[in-house]
Amino acid sequence: RKVDRLALCAEYVEPRDLAHHLANINRFCGATRYPISVAQHSVYVSLLVSPEAALAGLLHDAAEAYLNDVNKWLKATPEFARYRAAETAAQHVIMARFGVDWAAAEAPVEEADRLMLRFEVEQGFGQGFQWPPGYGPTRVEERERVGAWELWPWRLAEQRFLARFQDVWDAALFERLA
Fold first, then answer.
1. H or E segment and range at residue 124
2. CA geometry: angle at 152 spanning 21 and 169, to 5°?
């Protein structure tokens, strides 16, 4: 189906599409030694937050399924203001589609996202990475919090994203019915 990426409609947002696209988009613009998918990143973020914030954690980068990933520092430049606006609009549509209260989940999701960023940098670039100001390596307790980690091929990342979506969606639905 045709999707207007700059005017995304909720009826076009499907978990299978999100899983497939995010599994095929690499973190850090593909510059790591091994590809780390946005889908794998999203699953781990969702596992690091409370059950109430898990769906928000899983979907926090979902707009990238439609707009692709842009390097964090490049995205922050004035030249990318229109991209940021489009990303924000798409993200709002996606969160609304699945009933996510982003305001309630934003702080813990952003904390987990920053932890995974540092952890993935270490996995993808090695110990000699030159950290930008405000960032640094993970501490032992943070690495323990992430737990067992291995690179997932894209098909496995897609499957695990979908499985995690189903788990947190079912839990959220159960909470709404209770």
1. helix 102-125
2. 60
pLDDT tens, residue by residue, 5-58:
888 999 999 999 999 999 999 999 999 999 999 999 999 999 999 999 999 999
3-state secondary structure of 132: coil
pLDDT in tens, 111-152: 999 999 999 999 999 888 888 877 888 889 999 999 999 999
Hunting for tokens 């409370």 — which residue is that?
Answer: 50
Quick one: tokens of 15?
A: 């978990």
Q: What is the DSSP string of 4-68?
A: -TTS--GGG--HHHHHHHHHTSBGGGG-SSS--BHHHHHHHHHHHS-GGGHHHHHHTTTTHHHH-
| Cα 37 to the center of its chain, rounded Å | 9
